[in-house]
Prior knowledge:
Elements: H1 16-25, H2 34-39, H3 45-56, H4 73-93, H5 100-107, H6 117-123, H7 127-141, H8 146-149, H9 157-170, H10 180-190, H11 206-219, H12 225-253, H13 257-288, H14 293-319, H15 331-334, H16 340-344
Helix pairs in contact: 1-3, 3-4, 3-11, 6-12, 7-10, 9-13, 10-13, 11-14, 12-13, 12-14
Amino acid sequence: MDHDRRGPAPPAARGPVSAAVAAYLRGAGPPPRAEDVAGARAYGDDLQLALYLCYELHYRGFADAAPDLEWDPGLLGVRAALEQRFLAALRAGTPGHAGLDDALAELLVEPVRGTGVSHYLRDEGELWQLREYAAQRSLYHLKEADPHAWVLPRLWGRAKAAMAAVEFDEYGGGRADRVHARLFADLMNDLGLDTTYGRYLDAASAEALATVNLMSLFGLHRELRGALVGHFAAVEITSSPGSRRLAEAMRRTGAGPAAEFFYDEHVEADAVHEQVVRHEVIAGLLEEEPQLAPDVTFGIDATGHLEDRFGRRLLADWREGRSSLRVALDARAERRNTSPAYRESTHIS
């Protein structure tokens, strides 16, 4: 079958597993060895990139990778082994709530003195840091809502109807110019970033990759449908206040009108979505399948765990005046990075 040349270019490898997967996609070598997969760190660059490469075949694929590799038995076996290591680490290392009510209650409470990334960017972040944040988040936001759509065939009744309604909003309510992925591309334009799908895969940290891989892991497995609903709840419930802070950061730094609009749109939309997700999606799911309550809780907790890891990585780098990216941004963005701290951090981590 002809290769699909419209997808992004494959990224540089980060270890033996991702190197073997990338070579296999090009038809230039065998799949990774079992011992290499077994030795890869669950949250490390090599495993997370390899898993991202496998998952991306279910979205847009990669340039020069044959479309039928999506269901290649050898590659699916590798993916399963990578997923087992990732999921085992999540189950063992994620701080858990006693139950779903406790998990939801904590999501609904805004700390008096927040210390997360959105607080930092609102209060003291510089434009170069907003660009780095957007570049890493683009791996999800340029396909926003797509991983969550996998769960729709696995729901029914109230949960399906409500989930479809929220997804309809995410896809612009039928208007191509209001699709949230399109709005994020407009934000990237304001920030001087390349809007090509997958452009910043090489630059993104393992922590950023893990947050995106989590959605695909939950979305592509029917047995994890409850966890996907939990992930969706965590995102939607926390999105409105976080987006308000990020909109303020964009205004304070003069990022541009489209950059402001993306987050302003999420403040309004996600305030409504939060109610729908709690009272219709979760309640409807548990009305039909009450045994999934622990899975919903796990989805909420795992989302928070990985977002916290990503946030700690960003803040640790930025507070030391370092870039959070593995490779520098494109030249067009670099010209707008005027911070001395950014210019001095040429040793991209």
